[in-house]
Design brief:
Distance between the termini: 33 Å
Order of helices and strands: HEHEHEH
Structural class: alpha/beta
Radius of gyration: 13 Å
Number of helices: 4
Strand content: 5-15%
């Protein structure tokens, strides 16, 4: 599904993020080279604890408490990049 979105909307994979709460969201983003943010809400804690063997948790870009914190992380990244 992510590949279809990249193709349809001409997304730059290196500048795109996957925000999710499931290990499968993280694995999907990692598989095509997107930045990934795991939110602890929903199934997020289980993805960290119970399913950590199913995905590469060491290469997550950020673990956020919730979607708002994930959004703030991305905004901070963009703001820093714009200042350069």
């Amino acid at each position: 599904m992510l590949e279809l979105m990249v193709e349809k909307y001409l997304l730059n994979i290196n500048e795109s993020y996957v925000i999710g709460d499931r290990w499968s969201d993280m694995k999907a983003g990692q598989s095509i080279g997107m930045k990934i943010i795991l939110v602890r809400t929903g199934a997020g804690e289980a993805s960290i604890n119970k399913y950590k063997d199913k995905w590469d948790i060491e290469n997550v870009d950020f673990i956020a408490s919730n979607f708002v914190e994930a959004s703030e992380y991305i905004k901070g990244f963009i703001d820093t990049k714009m200042k350069k």
